[in-house]
Amino acid sequence: MLYRSTRGKASGFTFEEAVMTGLASDGGLFIPNEIPKLPADFLTTWKDYTFSELSLQVLSLFISESEIPRSDLKRIIDASYSTFTNKDITPLVQIDKEKDLWILELFHGPTFAFKDVALQFLGNLFEFFLKRKNSSRKSPTDPLHRLTIVGATSGDTGGAAIYGLKGKENVSVFIMHPNNRVSPIQKAQMTTVLDANIHNIAIEGTFDDCQDIVKALFGREDFRVKHSLGAINSINWARILAQTVYYFQAYFTLVRAGHVDPKIVFFTPTGNFGDILAGYYAAKLGLPVSRLVVSTNSNDIIYRFFKTGFYQKGAAGVLATPSPAMDILVSSNFERFCWYLAYQCEATGKTEQERIDQAGHIITKWMDDLKTTGKFQVSPASLEMARKELDSGTTSDEDTYQTINEYYSVSDSSTKVKYLLDPHTAVGVHLSDIMRSELASDLGYSNYTSVCLSTAHPSKFVEAVEHSLKPDFPEFDINPLLPEQFVGIFNKTQRCEYLPNDIDAVAKFIESKVDY
């Protein structure tokens, strides 16, 4: 399996090259040359697999055994998920029997966020590739292969990346977050990790500003090569690949729970478009999925695209909401989805290669238009195709608060379970309720199962949870619900560098901390 850039100027990359490089030299994102086929009997043979066993099956489709022997891949996967506190890794919990509504809990990793699923794996991948490169040096005096990870976070990616990479040999990590725009718990999780290879940077700006700095640093060829830059954001293909697995896990969990040929609608809280893209790839592989719903908050650039065909930055910029990990102006991974639209609907070449090349040119133009004018528009054919692949909905702040309150308020119900939602999960749960009639009409049946992806433990967003509950539950106290790792976290020493929204300032700081 080889990989190419969405922008067409870089191709023929191995899995290792795609993972270690992160972002293609032409500014595009890596995608597989083809989407492989699942085994014809996977619905029966994979039914009783554990999460790690499913991971091995799915990932092996995209990773050649000549690159990572199957025994090594199994070891990497097993090590990655040994850090999770739930034996099912991503368990499924039913909270409403009448609506057949389930929560896919993705927060049982070291930092209690869905990012752990991918970043524990990615950290071990980096370590595997670096050790192999360094062990194959011709002479012990030859320079060591090293990696400088530069990433941006709206909250959860940073902590998950840091916990996945702290203490790793020959890896330096620089994580930028928007100052005062992540939750106190999220900041503390990052800044209390004092390992020498970890560096936190608070940027005076938004997440999009942080993300722009990351992309600009990768665009500086001399800097990128000199410091061996690597990416941990969801622009890194390995993250998307790892996340496809829990869509399979959800399907087979429902089968084992008694659902025969389940018809599943997934509601995925969406910021940078990585999580929903993983579902898109799972469906393209052949997993039976009735619908994938892009679930957005007031930062609804994706929702507006599905309504109008225009991908356009909001005039007001990034809005602060109760679900800060989704407070994003431009979703980086949307470019991957757009490549498939361009290839299927916009390219007119007679040969496969001509269409691939044309798709790259189209994506380059769309991304250039976005950079220069703040928007681009797809054709009616592309919009129609996009709507066939995905649905979308948006949720207000008030609806988010109300949904948290609604499910915490449950008592003496034979159909509902009392459940504390985090504000991101609440976005998906709200949409699962208000979109039922619309989806039933589109699908032609109403007896579908709703699965909402729960992206973080509610205790990571205490302010939003308390805002939702205190008026009706003044006695509510989050402390008994805190994971053990959070107890006393604000009393620990924190280390963080505060920098302006300036690429040169960040580059100078990185160069002051790395010795290669």
UniProtKB/TrEMBL annotation:
<dbReference type="GO" id="GO:0004795">
    <property type="term" value="F:threonine synthase activity"/>
</dbReference>
<dbReference type="Pfam" id="PF00291">
    <property type="entry name" value="PALP"/>
</dbReference>
<dbReference type="InterPro" id="IPR051166">
    <property type="entry name" value="Threonine_Synthase"/>
</dbReference>
<comment type="similarity">
    <text>Belongs to the threonine synthase family.</text>
</comment>
<comment type="pathway">
    <text>Amino-acid biosynthesis; L-threonine biosynthesis; L-threonine from L-aspartate: step 5/5.</text>
</comment>
<keyword id="KW-0456">Lyase</keyword>
<dbReference type="InterPro" id="IPR036052">
    <property type="entry name" value="TrpB-like_PALP_sf"/>
</dbReference>
<keyword id="KW-0791">Threonine biosynthesis</keyword>
<dbReference type="GO" id="GO:0009088">
    <property type="term" value="P:threonine biosynthetic process"/>
</dbReference>
<dbReference type="InterPro" id="IPR001926">
    <property type="entry name" value="TrpB-like_PALP"/>
</dbReference>
<dbReference type="InterPro" id="IPR029144">
    <property type="entry name" value="Thr_synth_N"/>
</dbReference>
<feature type="domain" description="Threonine synthase N-terminal">
    <location>
        <begin position="3"/>
        <end position="81"/>
    </location>
</feature>
<dbReference type="Pfam" id="PF14821">
    <property type="entry name" value="Thr_synth_N"/>
</dbReference>
<dbReference type="InterPro" id="IPR037158">
    <property type="entry name" value="Thr_synth_N_sf"/>
</dbReference>
<feature type="modified residue" description="N6-(pyridoxal phosphate)lysine">
    <location>
        <position position="115"/>
    </location>
</feature>
<dbReference type="InterPro" id="IPR004450">
    <property type="entry name" value="Thr_synthase-like"/>
</dbReference>
<dbReference type="Pfam" id="PF24857">
    <property type="entry name" value="THR4_C"/>
</dbReference>
<keyword id="KW-0663">Pyridoxal phosphate</keyword>
<dbReference type="InterPro" id="IPR000634">
    <property type="entry name" value="Ser/Thr_deHydtase_PyrdxlP-BS"/>
</dbReference>
<feature type="domain" description="Tryptophan synthase beta chain-like PALP">
    <location>
        <begin position="90"/>
        <end position="315"/>
    </location>
</feature>
<keyword id="KW-0028">Amino-acid biosynthesis</keyword>
<dbReference type="GO" id="GO:0030170">
    <property type="term" value="F:pyridoxal phosphate binding"/>
</dbReference>
<protein>
    <recommendedName>
        <fullName>threonine synthase</fullName>
        <ecNumber>4.2.3.1</ecNumber>
    </recommendedName>
</protein>
